[in-house]
Amino acid sequence: MSKLIMFHARECPHCQRMMPYVDKLEKETGIKFERLEIWHNEENADLMRSYRDIIAPKCGGQLKTPAFLNTETKDAFCGEVEYETLKEWALK
């Protein structure tokens, strides 16, 4: 498993807006995100729920999409952010 995970949903407009940023970041830096769709894949949804204690506090107490998780640093955030914010988070 990658250390960086993007939990997303196909129909989520916020996820769709973040995908180009993730693509750009991967191309520019060589960083790779594991992209896990959670609305149509129960195994991925279960994995996201297993990280509830890390993700939910950073996301207003809930599990939301898109959710970004660094499994090494145990850091997470949810929602749409600017490209530079995503890059800064991913590189720390």
Task: Provide a short characterization of the protein structure.
This protein is an alpha+beta fold and 92 residues long. It is 46% helix and 20% strand. The longest helix is centred in the N-terminal third of the chain and has 17 residues, at 13-29.
How confident overall, as mean pLDDT?
A: 96
**How does the helix and strand content classify structurally?**
alpha+beta
Radius of gyration, taken over Cα atoms and rounded to an integer in Å: 12 Å
List segments where confidence is low: pLDDT < 50 over at least 5 consecutive residues: none
Helix content: 40-55%
Query: How many domains make up the coordinates?
Result: 1
What is the CATH superfamily? Glutaredoxin
Which sequence of strands runs across the widest sheet?
2-1-3-4
Q: N-to-C terminal Cα separation, in Å?
A: 18 Å
The CATH class: Alpha Beta
Tell me about the biggest sheet? 4 strands, mixed
Number of helical stretches of at least 4 residues = 4
Q: What would the principal axes of the Cα set say about the shape? A: globular
Assign the CATH architecture: 3-Layer(aba) Sandwich
What is the CATH T-level topology?
Glutaredoxin
- By DSSP, the count of extended strands is 4
Q: What does this 3D model show about the protein?
A:
The protein has 92 residues and is of the alpha+beta class. The protein has a single domain (4-91), classed as 3-Layer(aba) Sandwich (Glutaredoxin). The chain contains 4 helices and 4 strands; from the N terminus they run βαβααββα. Strands 2-1-3-4 form a 4-stranded mixed β-sheet, with helices on both faces. The mean pLDDT is 96.
